[in-house]
């Protein structure tokens, strides 16, 4: 048994800062705090002196004035799109056809899949992300590559084979049967192995036939403890396409619902243009939506109604949506969420932004208290942030009148240079 004490400022939450009590009631900041880590788990979070006197022999790691937070949880991304991030000039459907599908075709090569999986996790962790929920490609090899790379780092991850049997190039189409069979085999191989969670993954209703949606819906009904991830209501031309392909459906969500793809562990990326019925059904089923703000601006999708959906009581996670999103950084992602909030007339508090990137995403994947949480019993997945990482940030922070005032410039202007250290499963990454 090894014990490590991390010393620094600490930030933890014991409730939802979007709730009625307000952010102050559920947020705990310690200027001289400490975190005790043992066997990969957080055992104590308290004042520095209290932790030091309780465990005098533990190894010490003094991070000075840096901020110790739960590591970031990226609740929706596409690791196979890492190499095409920031591709110019297209909106969703053209962007998929021009950049995404040709790149995803390369993942039939397991060596390439492994290279990109390792690269993605290296980039994510460099940016302070300690858990991810990723789409893979239609190739089973791409799933093995991702889970193997995550296991090397002992990261808690969620991923699955992307299923598509229409409206995609020949090389990227499976069938209803092979989607079911391959997903089932991969689920049985990976789900619950170490820190891996399998997520059943139909890409979105335009690229699946009703037969395929029904097949993966059947698989989910056999494994309701798995997440099911997909896309929902992202862009206006996409909505028109969905209507055309599913004329009998009441709305976009219904294209999933009628095939058994609406449930408590459903994770729906984007969810920008929801109708009242869809919001009510998502709430009734306790399903989750994921806000992907850099993607929504980069590919021109629209302005997610975070405040409105939180007021309806939906689970909302935060995500990069790499490579439709334009950054690997959850700090940059929080900044984009803030900017979209402003365009909708809402100024999100820094406590709400950090909460979304940690606890909010963990709740969205039903792992609250286990990941994205700086509290006793949670996995010791941590990010240590330097709040003066660049001259531009430091000169603003030097004027700060409160902790939040000191943190906000790093949220708005920070990147991987702000990430002083990352701990995963109780070990510092080198
Ligand atoms: N909708 C279907 N596939 C995708 C994808 O890869 N990225 C985004 N942003 N939206 C999608
Ligand atoms: Zn996506």
Notable characteristics:
binds zinc ion, nine-stranded parallel sheet, alpha/beta, binds guanine, Urease, subunit C, domain 1, 2 domains, TIM Barrel, 430 residues, globular, 16 helices
Give an overview in words:
- By secondary structure, this protein is an alpha/beta fold.
- The chain has 2 domains: 3-71 and 372-428, Urease, subunit C, domain 1 (Roll), CATH 2.30.40; 75-364, TIM Barrel (Alpha-Beta Barrel), CATH 3.20.20.140.
- The chain is 39% helix and 23% strand.
- The protein is built from 16 helices and 16 strands.
- The strands form 2 sheets. Strands 5, 6, 7, 8, 9, 10, 11, 12 and 13 form a 9-stranded parallel β-sheet that branches. A 7-stranded mixed β-sheet has the order 3-2-1-4-14-15-16.
- Helix 10 links the parallel strand 11 and strand 12 (288-291).
- Helix 6 (176-190) packs parallel to helix 7 (210-222), helix 13 crosses helix 14 (350-364) and helix 14 (350-364) crosses helix 16.
- The longest helix is centred in the N-terminal third of the chain and has 17 residues, at 110-126.
- It is globular, with a radius of gyration of 21 Å.
- The two termini are 21 Å apart.
- Residues 78, 92, 96, 100, 203-204, 231, 234, 295, 321, 324 line the site of guanine (GUN).
